[in-house]
Design goal:
The complex is a heterotrimer of chains A (about 350), B (about 270) and C (about 270).
Chain A: E1 6-14, E2 19-28, E3 33-37, H1 44-52, E4 59-64, E5 67-68, E6 79-82, H2 94-104, H3 109-122, H4 138-150, E7 156-160, H5 168-185, E8 188-193, H6 196-202, E9 205-210, E10 213-218, H7 220-225, H8 230-235, E11 240-250, E12 253-258, E13 263-266, E14 277-282, E15 288-291, E16 300-311, E17 314-321, E18 326-332, E19 345-349, E20 356-359
Helix pairs in contact in A: 2-3, 2-4, 3-4
Chain B: H1 3-24, E1 26-29, E2 32-37, H2 40-47, H3 49-82, H4 88-100, H5 102-114, H6 119-126, H7 140-163, H8 169-176, H9 181-210, H10 213-218, H11 226-235, H12 240-273
Antiparallel strand pairs in B: 1-2
Helix pairs in contact in B: 1-12, 2-12, 3-7, 3-9, 4-7, 5-7, 7-9, 8-9, 9-12, 11-12
Chain C: H1 2-37, H2 53-58, H3 64-94, H4 100-108, H5 115-128, H6 137-161, H7 166-173, H8 178-207, H9 212-215, H10 223-231, H11 237-259, H12 264-268
Amino acid sequence: MAAPDIVLRDVTKRYRDALAVDDLSLEIERGEFLTLLGPSGCGKTTTLNMIAGFIAPTAGTITIKGQPVTDLPPFERDTSMVFQSYALFPHMTVFDNVAFGLRMRKVDRSELRRRVGEALESVHLSGLEKRYPRELSGGQQQRVALARAIVTRPAVLLLDEPLSNLDLKLREAMRLELKALQRDLGITSVYVTHDQDEALAMSDRIAVMNRGRVEQVGKPEEVYDSPSTLFVATFVGDINLLRGTVESSDDEGLAVRLAGGTLVRTRPDRERQRGDAVTVAVRPEKCVLSVAGETEGANSLPARVVDTLVAGAEIRYRLALEGGEELVVAALNVDTSPRPSPGTGARVTLPQAHCRTFPAA
Amino acid sequence: MGLPPTVFLLAAFFLPLAFLMVLSVYRFDAGLIEPDVTLENYRKFFADSFYLAGLWRTVRLAAIVSLVVTTLSYPVAYFLTRTTSRFKGLLIALVLAPELSGVVLRTYGWIVILEDRGLVNTLLLDLDLIDRPLRLSQSFAGVALGLTHVLLPFAILAIFSTLQTIDPVLERAAQNLGANRVRTFFRVLFPLSLPGVIGAFFLTFTISASAYATPAILGGSGFHVLATMIYQQLLFFLNWPLASVMSLVLLVTVLIVALIGNRVETRVERALQG
Amino acid sequence: MRRFLKIQAPALLFRAVVVLIYAFMFLPIAIVVLVSLNAEPYLTLPPESFSLRWYRQVFTPTWLPPLRYSLVIAAAAALGSGLLGGLGAFAIARYKFPGRAALQAFLMSPLSIPSIVTGVAILQFATMVNLQGMLGTPALIVGHIVVTLPFTVRMIGISLFNFDRSVEQAAANLGARPGQVLRHVTLPLMKPGIFAGMTFAFIVSFNNVPVSLFLVRPGATTLPIEILNFLQYRLDPTLAAVNMVSLVIVLALVAIAERAGGFTKFVYGRS
């Protein structure tokens, strides 16, 4: 297997009184689309800026295509960035914006024309060469920024929340388009976002960051289905959290007594022991709602419907367990599912395989 | 509400200015001012090489000083724009501070530094680099230096306020696309800051063309620009009509330059915005 | 090494240039400080001994009257300029009427006329229309108000544009009549701008040369003109001490204004 395109080794960035990035190591394969996902202030943008060379790491090394770049200024690194604000040069036409990187590389005129034309075509902007940025819509500006970044055929494409300034519909369309373009070009990409839907939809792998550290790196389905920390579980997707104490632990699973007295069985976890305070986490769409009085199986708990919310394709029920704990269950909005009304009793089944435990926060 | 200041300015400013124009066409005869309309005063000014040299010196001095000031101001303005120092507010206040000290104090300081027995000459003599003191004060260069000092804060603030409107991410974008510092500056930052640079140049030009104290003190008694000539005509020769003509020449020069500056600035701004 | 040449060296060079320019800006002021504290009449570097003897000369009948006179003129000019400028700024910011932009341009116009021309015009006008009695104190105050008016209009204007109109609407909604809104909401919010504008006007007037030059009368001279007259003939270290005293007065005022609601931000702020 080829060496990774980007290697971050023990990278740390310390500001006067704050640790922005804390001993971060990461490898990104050739052609891979990796997303740095996390809340604002988690260090994801700082990490991206260190790869681009705008910020010098306090410690650690960065390698791009086998070349150590830690000490190189940004203009000597083979990276292209799509900025959140697009950063289009307001005093240059679309053509000049896209041609800028090629001019810096002293590409000859005919070649330059051809490549700018191709880049604009690939983002469906042919014909707008003579416009100025302020004469374009937000979506068009975004495409110019993308064309400007890919026209130099960089080793690495860096994207800093490039879709965050678009409205919802356009954003969702651009996700698919951007991802398709990236796949066609086969360009190694690092994408920064705080939007978990975006990360899940576009990435080959996601690195979830929190307080300057990577909490988990994995494929979208791994991060979603098998979060390794409570932070990842809560940041990526919705999840129910129930507090309790471990009563027993064996190869079959854990038995957790919730604060209100209800007993819940969860996946086995060797790190938890009898007496540990834990948080049980289970996703709303994994829980199954049934009518009161139906079969009582494992983790099938009596509950009362507090209220319901129709959210398009889904109905979300807020339930109260007998001990008082509340949890949300998401059911498909189809005619066959039972629809208990608020105030009535119901049963909720928490599939044991989907109940994970984390040390109590 | 706007009435009181309007009336005040009309009476205390525009009326005297109008009167200045009237006086410029009155006859000056044997120390007396006669209300006969004549262009004699204008003829006198524009036919006399002494006065014309004064006008030319005024323009040349202002042009040189504003060019130097604008150039020196740019790095400071850029530094103030981009610094992340927690003392940023203080650093800006420090630029303003010399302005608070008044032109007289600073001129005094420059005399101590530049005069024949001043600090620079003493140092150079002690080092045996020169035999006789250099003529630093009482010279064009001395006046230019003093004016440069007076005008730096104006130009720094003018350029600073434009640089502040330029998104720093544009510089990053240019560097990211392979432009080194020099190219980033000339292709992105400088063109975008041109309105501020032009504004600073023309602002400092008009101020230095009208300056009195610095040329009067640092230039010495033989050094004449329009401002010092006006003073002389008015208070020594008592030729008020001629002083009026000179004032109007200064006024028109400054207005023309300001007008050109405005034109250029608007045009550049429009070009930048596409 | 590579990192040093490519990244750190240019940054260091740039910093050095900035430091040099700052040093240039403070050089003459630092020199005046040294001269004023130097015991000898001639400055040598470094000074051999310090003394306050020149400062004692300041508080004598030679320098106290012009200092006092300048303070009075500046206070009067600041008051007049603050009042007229406040009215002008308020009219521009708060009323929509045809010619609003023209009013603004009109009130700013003294800025585009060389002050020395303003001084000449007022002197000639007052003399020729037989208002010689106005020369001296009244003419000085009027002239100083003319040249400081653009600053007070602009700085008070900033304070008016910068605050949220909805707080006035909130006050009205809570039952305040227009006069009460003005007294309890608008004026308190304008106060920093008014204060900064008047402080600036005071300083401009206190340091003014080109207008005062023509309007002072013998026996009643402002401090800068008095210093200027001395400066043309001799270089007495007392002048340095006098200059320092006036600088300290200005700095104290700025410090008070900065405390009272900000000064610098109004000087370089934009409306």
